[in-house]
Amino acid sequence: MAGKSSIPGLTLLIMLHVILVLGFIGEQWVNGSLERERSANAAFFGDTQASYAEARATQWFSGLLVDTGISTALFGAMLPSEAYNDAISESSAFTPFFSWWEGRLRTWWTLLYQAFLRISTALLWMPYALFVIAPFIVDGAIRRKIKQTDFRMASPLQHRLNVLAIKAVVLGYAVLLFLPIALKPIFLPLLILITGAALGNAVGHFAKRA
Predict the structure, then answer these.
(1) What gap in Å lies between CA 143 and CA 206, rounded to an integer?
(2) 10 within 8 A of 173, measured Cβ to Cβ
(3) Residues of the chain above pLDDT 70, percent
(4) Which residues contact 175 (CB under 8 A, 6 or more apart)?
(5) Nearest CA to 187 among 21, 20, 25, 37?
(6) Contact at 8 Å (CB) between 30 and 108?
(7) Residue 202 near residue 140 (C-beta atoms within 8 A)
(8) pLDDT recorded at residue 90
(9) Please, are residues 41 and 185 in contact by the beta-carbon 8 Å criterion?
(10) Residue 116 in contact with residue 46, Cβ under 8 Å?
(11) What's the CA gap between 139 and 144, in Å, rounded?
(12) 67-72: average pLDDT
């Protein structure tokens, strides 16, 4: 139930985030953020790995949103047609608004691509994440086994807090995917460490059974 109840809150948070981006974040800012993040990835991972992650993100983005016609349908539905543009005067009161709105749509589209790039880059860390998280889980399991043989009690509160920490990391990263700032490549390893520590503590404080 707790997981289901968090979905509407996360959806509302993402919607508010989209509204803020569309209303206040400039297209130039988002483009600059994307370029800074790409440069940081190339410097950290090297050109080969960074290019591979970017090519994979581009393939996902094109395959899901461009080749399927979703992007064309979106812009066609939310912007006036060429026939309408030809019919109205350049001095039309709506012309500045439509120009502004087109820029907003391009901004969000760029931010969406940046999210694809961040997911693709995150996957570069997955083989290492297993080696980082596994020792925490083993340590937690050993501590839980020890508690089963002595009089020390597992803490339901500690277990619950660590589970909440894991959920916070996952949901927080889902929001950060669309954050219009350049994320450093070292950011994800820190999240992996936090997740591993919280997971290990959650296992260690899991209610013991006979």
Answers:
(1) 10
(2) no
(3) 73
(4) 10, 13, 14, 17
(5) 37
(6) no
(7) yes
(8) 54
(9) yes
(10) no
(11) 9
(12) 80
Give the model's pLDDT for residue 180. Answer: 83
More confident residue, 7 or 170: 170
Per the listing, tokens 């980082």 go with: 132
Q: What is the DSSP string of 55-73?
A: HHHHHHHIIIIITTSHHHH
Q: Using alpha carbons only, what angle is made at residue 101 by residues 88 and 180, rounded to the nearest 5 degrees?
A: 165
Span 143-201, pLDDT tens digits: 877 777 766 676 778 888 888 988 888 888 888 888 888 888 888 899 999 999 999 88
Q: Kindly tell me the burial class for residue 137, based on how many C-beta atoms sit within 10 Å of its own C-beta (0-12, 13-18, 19 or more).
A: middle
What is the C-alpha to C-alpha distance for residues 48 and 184, in angstroms, rounded to an integer?
18
pTM: 0.77
Single-letter code of the amino acid located at 145: K
* pLDDT per residue as tens digits for the range 81-114: 555 555 455 555 556 666 767 777 788 888 889 9
Query: Which token pair is 135?
Result: 């020792």
Contacts of residue 12, Cβ cutoff 8 Å, sequence gap at least 6: none
Q: What are phi and psi of 139, to 5 degrees?
A: -60, -45
Question: Which of these, 45, 82, 207, 202, lies nearest to 139 by C-alpha position?
Answer: 202
